[in-house]
Amino acid sequence: MKIDQSFVSQMQEGNRNYQVVSTIITLSNQLGLSVVAEGIETPQQLQWLKQLGCEFGQGYLFSKPLAAKEIEAHFLQNKSLLQIVQCF
Question: Which of residues 88 and 49 earns the better pLDDT score?
Fold first, then answer.
């Protein structure tokens, strides 16, 4: 299940979008589905999503969109990104 970036980008702890994201993650976990958050742009968004139990994420915090052949080289050159992704 995907969480649209419009919810992620407007998340503030305790606000309506935060509650929507929390509900989607909880429902996904109860149904045994993987959940992916789109549009992660800040470390704070990443922290909240991890605390809520989100398993996967994508967004400019990690990288701009890349062609498949560029992904490995990009992450090998940016080892700090690997640490963020591994923690997620």
Answer: 49
